[in-house]
Each structure stands twice: as C-alpha cells, then as structure tokens.
Amino acid sequence: MRTLLSATFIIGFICVNAQDTVKVAGNLTPDQLAEQDYNYGLAALKKNDCSAAVDLFSKSLAAKPNFDKALANRAIAYTHLKKHAEAVKDINDAIKINPQNPETYFNKGLIYFELNQKDSENVALDNCLKLKADHAEAAYYKGILLYETSDFDKAIEFFSKAISSNSNYAYAYNDRGSAKRAKNDNAGAIADYEKAISIDGSLTFIHNNLGSAYRLNKNYPKAIEAYTKAIQANPAYLTALINRGATQFENNNLKAAQADFEEVLKKDPNNAGAYNNLSSIAIKNKDYKKGKDMAARSIQLDEKNGPAYYNRGIARQMLHEEEGSCADWKKALELGVEGAKAFINSSCD
Amino acid sequence: MKNNIYLFAFLTFSFFSFAQSVEFEKDNFPGKKEELREAKKKLDIGIDSYVQGRKEFDDFKKNYVSETKILPVSHYDYQKAGFTFFRNALSPLTDAQRFNPKNARLNYMLGFVWFISDPSNAETLKYLETAYSLDPKVEPDLAYWLAWANHLNSKWDEAIKYYQLHLTFLQQKAKSNALDIDDANKKIAECNQGKKYSTNPERVFVDNLGSSVNTSYPEYGPSITADEETIIFTARRDNSTGLKRDENDNGFYEDVYISNKKNGKWQPSVQLSKNVNTENHDAAAGLSPDGSKLYVYRHSGKDGGDLYESTLFGADWEPPVHMNKNINTKYHESSVSVNGDGHRIYFVSDKESGLGDRDIYFSDMDVKGEWGAAKNIGPEINTKYAEEAVFMHPDGVTLYFSSKGHNNMGGYDIFKSTFVNGKWSAPENLGYPINGPDDDVFFVVSGSGSRAYFASAKQGGFGEKDIYKITFLGAEKNPLLNSQDQLIAMRANPVSNLKTENAVEVKMAKVTILKGVVTDAKTNQPLEALIELIDNDKNQVIATFKSNSATGKYLVTLPSGKNYGIAVKKDSYLFHSENFNLPEGADYQEFNKDVALKKIEIGSVIVLRNIFFDFDKATLRPESANELERLIKLLNDNPGIKIELGSHTDSKGSDEYNMKLSDNRSKSVVDYLINKGISSSRLVAKGYGETKPIDTNDTDAGRQNNRRTEFKILEK
Predict the structure, then answer these.
(1) Structurally, what CATH architecture does the domain formed by A1-15+29-98 represent?
(2) A284 — contact with chain B (CB < 8 Å)?
(3) pLDDT digits over B132-148, tens only?
(4) Which residues of B touch A320 (CB under 8 A)?
(5) CA atoms of A86 and B275, how far apart (whole Å)
(6) Contact status of B450 with chain A (Cβ, < 8 Å)
(7) Do the chains contact at B556 and A23, CB–CB below 8 Å?
(8) pLDDT tens per residue across span A272-288
(9) CATH top class, domain A204-269
C-alpha cells in the first residue's frame, strides 16, 4: 500500500504543479508498470470487479510476462468469472515460473475443487502440503476431499491437522464434526459442532448442524433448542426452520411441525421443501389428497426434489392411483431416494 | 311322526319357558283372538318345515362327524343341509314372529334358518340375540349358533363369550362332548386369531373386477396368467350350457368363462366353447402360468369329482382330457396349479391316504410327459382339517393355499408357505382383510406378486360371489421430509477461499526531482528558457522543456544513478550547461538548480560543463558532442562574435604540466570547432593551467569545479 501511495504522490505532485512547466522525464519502466498494474488489479479483485482485475493483470503480464503473482491472481479472477480453462492455464503458468510457492498450489487445488476434479485437486493440495506441511487450509480442503470420497477416517485426520495448525479454525471443527457424524459418532460430532460454535457463535449453519446431530440421536429437545438458536441468530435462515419442523414431525408434534413449515412459506412462498414437508404431515394424517397436492406443488417448484416424488407416490398409492405412484417412485429413485426401490419392488410391475 | 314329536317338544318346552318369552296364548294377546289364531297357524306350518329341515341337518351333521371325526369348521361344510325345508319354514315363521316377536323359541328357529341360508346376515344375529335375551336356555345349542353368527360378523369378543358359555355347557358331559369341546375351543382360538389380525390389518386394496367379469350370478375360482392379461373363472349364470339348474341348490350349472385385458381394462367375459363347457358342472380348477393349459373340474356323480386338462389350440380350447390315475381317483380331486416350468403339478384330493380331510398333493411329469405318482406335500402344509385351492406362484417356490387347520380366524383361510432348502416354511396367514371369519379360498397371485385375485360374496358386489382384485400396499410407508444441513462449511463457496497474492512494492527507480528558477543574471528577472536534458551515458537529449515564463521555474523528475547534463538556452543569452551525477540514494531526493543566464556581451564568460576529456589527456570524449554542438549553434546564430576557449586545471600536477595540458585541451576544442566549419579567426585557444581557480583545490568537488573549459566573448 505504501508503494501505491508513493506512486499516487508522484502523480499528484505533478498534477498539483501543473501550472508550472513540468516534465515527467522518469517514465516507469516496464517492470514498474507491471507491478503498478498488478496492484491496481489486486485492488479491483478485492472489490470483486473481476473483469477489471483480469484486464489489469493482463496489462501487467503484457509488460512482465513472467510475473507469477499476476498469473496467480488472474487465475483467481478467472475462477470468479467461471472461466476455469483460463484459470487453470494461468495457475499452471504461475507454478512453472515459481514452483516453490505453496499458495499457488493451494489455489490450484481450489480451482480443481470448484471444477469437481478431485484427482487434480488432490495432487495440488498434496504439493501445497509438501511445501508447507502446516498449511491449515490445504489440510482442511484435503479433509473435504476425503470426506466427499467417504473416507471419513482420513478426513477426520486432515481436519485435525488443520485444527492443530489453526486452533480457531471453526470450519474445520464443523467439518470434522460432520465426518464424525458420518461415522455415526454423534457424540463426537456434537462436541466438534459445539467447539466450532464456541469459536464463532455467529455461524448459524453450525447451530443447525448441531441440531441435526441431536436429532439423529433422537434428542429432540436439544435439537429443537439448537435449531431455535440458529433461527434466533438469523430469522431468515429457513434451513433451520425447516429442520426444526422436521424434528417436531419426528417427535410426533405435527401441529408444531406444521407451524414451522407454514412459517417458512410465509417467508418464502416458493419453498419446495416446506411444501413437501406439509405433504408429509398430510400423509401422516391420512389426508392423501392434500398430501398429493402439497407434494405436487413442491415438485412444481423443484423438479429435482426426490422426497416430494416419493411422498406423492405414497399419496397416490393410497388414492388408488397405482400407475402414478409407481412413476413417482421411479423418479424418486432416479433422484437418489433409495427407499423408493423397496416400494417399486413390492408394488410396481 | 317325528315331526309331531318335535312339535310336541316345542309346545311342552314353551310352557316352561322363561317369563320373558311370550308364548302364543290368548292371555298374552287380549282382543287379538283372530290374529293369534292366524299366527299360530303360520307357526305350525313353519315349525313343520323347520323340524323336517332340522332333522335333515342333524342327520347330515351326524354323518359328517362320523366320517371326519371332527365337527364342521366352516358353515359351508353343512352344505345347506335341510335348506329346502328351512326355505319353506322361513316365510310362515317370519309371519308368526311379526305377530309375536317375543317368543324365544320362534326367534331361535328363525335365527337357525337364517344361519343355514346366510349365516353372516344381520337377520341371523338379530333373531339369535333376541332368542338369547328372552331365554338363554331355550335350546342347548343357542349359545353355539349365536357365537358362530357373531364370529362370522367379526364380533370376536361377543363370539368368544358365547363359545365360552357353550363350552361350559358341554363340559358338563365332557367325555361324550369331546368333539364339540374341540370344536368350541378351535373356534375360540380362531376368534382370538381374528381379533389379533383385524387389529393390525394388512394394507391392501380390495377392488371388485367390475361388470365385465362379475354379474348378479356367482363368479368364483379365478385363475390368471402370470402377466394378468387373461382371467379364467367359474360362473353359474343364466346362460349356462344347457340352461340347467342344480336341484341341490337351484343354481345354474357351472361353466368356465374367460376375460382378456385390453388397455388395462377387462373385456366382457365370455363362456368357453362347448369343448370345455358341458351341460353338467364345469369349473375352472387352474391355469398354467403361460395360459396354455386349462384345468377343469367335472363331477359325474360317480367319480367324486375329477380333473381334466385342456390345451389352448389357436383361439379355442381343446376338449379337456381326463387326467391320469395318478391324479384322479374315486375320491374328490379339485384345484390344480402347475409350476413355472410345467413339470410339477399341485392338486387337491380327499383320498383316504391323506393326513385328514382334503390334502394337497404334487406329481412330477415323467420322461414320457405323463404325470407320475402323486405324493402328499407333507404335514407342514396339510393338517387333519381340509386344505383346498392350491396355487403355486410362478416363482416356483411360494405356495398359496387355503386351509382350515392352521392359525385360522374362521373357515378356510389363505396361507402362504415358501419352499426353502428343501423344506416348506411354516404357513403364514395372509391376515385380515384378505382372510376373515368366513371361507377364504381360491386365491391366485400375479407374477409380480403385487396383486392377487379371489372370490368373495362380500357386500357391495354385483350379487352372490364376485371376483375381486387385491392390491398389496405393503407396510405403511413413512413420508420423507426435506431437511438440510450444511455439513461441509466451505463446500458452498470454495472460491471465496482462494488466496490472492499480496500487493507488490513497485520497484520505482530512485527518483530525483531537479528543479530551479531560470533568471537573467543581471536583472534576476525570471526567464522562459529552453532546457535540454541530456543522458550523458547515451549522449542523447532525453527531454526538452521550458521554464515558466512568469516564474522562471522548472521541475523535472529524473531516475537516480545516472549522469545527466542540462543545457539552458535563450536567444540573446549565452547558454548555460550543467553536468551532474545523480547518485543512487534515497527513494526520493530533490536537487535545486537555479540558472542565471548571461546576455551575450563582451567579456561574458560561460563554463562549458559538459565538455569531457580523457583522463590526463587533451582528447575530447564523445559525450562532449552535445555541448560542442550548442557552442557551434551559438557561434552560427551570432556570426559576429569572437570567442576565447580557455581551459583550466586543478592544482594537482606541476604548473608547467598543467599549463601544457590546459593549452592542449583548449586547442582540441578549437580544432573541433574549426573542423565543424567555424572560422579559426573567430576562435582563440588559451591554456590557463592552475592559475585561475574558481574554487578550492583542497576538495574533490572544488578541484572538479576548477577543472573546466570556458568561453569568453572577445568581440561582438
């Protein structure tokens, strides 16, 4: 920043004295211009003006083609602009110029993360960690990668590494909690979620995750308490409201569940999940017509809502619409609702 | 004669009846003498028929028990014994009861008549309950029939209560009543089963197949192809072949009918041709899974009922062929099912070698294509009670059958058993409402296993028995909720975690500001002068600019670490040249260089700062060219002037040496100018050695100032 101010000072100085005869004899060298444009590009990137950032980094690189930092940052700008091919090229060029910068490998990893190219992401993160073993974020993302390949033990190991490099890494605690949850270690999950909340209580999604962990333990009062905290912290956080309703449903408090789902719809009249959950309540109350209608509305709002197809299938079956119910269950299965398979096997041709 | 005995017993018993029971006596109906007489007349007629029917019934029962060593499990087992008499009794007894509804025995008789005709009918229960309320002991078996009527109406607790009462009565003579006690206990067990199953009913839809299949006449015994595209069943319709009625029950003789499905809907059913249907009973007994073989039950009156096989040829069925002696015996054979590959047949027979009443047998096809010796399917399936209506699912391992001898809830129930590891699993009651307290038989399941077909006389049908479809709904399905978790914190927005490289420090050249004021040397007035900036290293003019006309100020930014020269020029003035080195230093430094320009006047002296010689020599260095060019221009612009070129040294070296060096250097400049076309007459070369210092010789800077070349205006 100091350098930027210096540059501005010189320009300003010249401008202030414009009435005198002045001449900038000391034109910036190409390197200086490159660095100056790089800094301007960085400022644009920080202001999320990614197109301008790309232009400025490109100007910088025109003056100084081997400017690895400009390449690295232009890669970020391209990533924000979803120009991933360009981003990958830039980040690789930056690494060629300076193969010893762990951050460049980290960024490369994240670009591949964004592209969901897990193998390439893994290699990049490994390279980052080779250069900087205590790179908390690289360890964290490596943990995510492992989590998403269902290697929860390894994921926990890497989240733990991230935590040992940064003891206030709330996200790492959250994600480790999720990995523990996936291993049915709900008690461990609850402990991690609570630790994450103690680090940053404003992260409503972690309150929500805590609620869900309690819900899995069928500790409905604690689940409802956690969801309620999330809702209180952010009344617009409908996820927690939906989940609290679902917990009330599982706790056989259909009235409270209905109130939560209706509250969601007041705030978001197009919330497909809330409609589907109202469908669940109607089915539970054996009001199959309403169950079908609510599920249909949910599907109308989100045609990829597998549970809504599943529920509409149940309602249709009970309304003696066997063909429709089978079609719905097949769609639900296609959308990943495994539970529909048993229905198809037992009730459909 | 016997009828009179029953009548006498009735009247005698009535005399001693409970007070609640109202007898047909004039004191009980004052002022209704005529009506009483008419009612008694009807009563007599009804009793007469009833007593005959009852005798026939009791005789049937006695024979049945004698043959089977058990009491009838199903009311159908009574085969409507005495039905004709009971039918004749019904109307006069009903008239008499209308006059006197409070006679216990009359209500008993009506209840019994109704039981034989239609036991689950509300009338049955109504009359029996009335009888019981008027006099529970009016007949010793009242509690039994009342229990059974409740049983058939799924009134489990009431049924158990009356069975228990009856049991108490029977146990007074337990030895002679052993079979009755077994029967009562079995029925109590059935009620308990019924209670259990009906509390947790199976989730099914039961749908009438509709008017294409069902009519007001009885339809039953369905068989389906595995793909459910064809259904074959038995019906007793008014278009029965030969249009004859069975004298036993006055119903039309059985024929076999078929219906095919088109676009998911059953088409109107039609009779099979006379190849299959005769003027006698022809009933569908089974169909192969592929629909190519039809099994027909026929009863000639001598053979006890036998099985026939018909093959579909083109659009018609060939005349059924009597199945061989391994299948048919002199006993009753009925109900056939063939397994998927057509090499094993299951059928029902009541031949003596069985485990009880009717049993299920199987027979394998031999190499000649003939059915081999029949084998009893075994005690896991067959009981001492009757088994009937066998159906092997196309999967080849799941057997459906009806039985009266497992954990039933009344009459025949439908069971399922699976053949696993060479054994039949324990038969599983298909539960309520597939099974009920009445007979449940002829149950066939679709190839998919998700639907089944059976016949029932349930209310709401087209009349008599109809064929129904069962859709199995499976266990209650819990709806799925939408819920969400953001399990992975950064999954949603990984890009936000990208690490930007930091800002760089722009490597600016060390900048020096050179500034000053150009003035007239004499008047100090600011002058607008032309200033040339020379990169001495490259011997290039790198910038040309003017000082401000009003202030005489100028300012220039210069990268440090270089050797620069400036020349300030203005018409009528001698130019001013300056040579300076800007050393590498701080990022930013300022040099102030004020320039006082001298007018072109005789005697004016100007130091030529940008004339350079090789060290200790008089050889001009190339970077002197700019300064010399300025001098040439000055001489050309002012052709009248004559100048002296004077050269000076510092004090280092001897005077003589310095004098000679300076003399040679001034001559070098003069020679350069002459070579550039300046007349030698306008030039005077003079060496001053160290004689005219302008600064101290004690310092480097002072000595540098003293080392100089000047020119002086000699003439103008």
Answers:
(1) Alpha Horseshoe (1.25)
(2) yes
(3) 999 999 999 999 999 99
(4) 205, 207
(5) 82
(6) yes
(7) yes
(8) 999 999 999 999 999 99
(9) mainly alpha
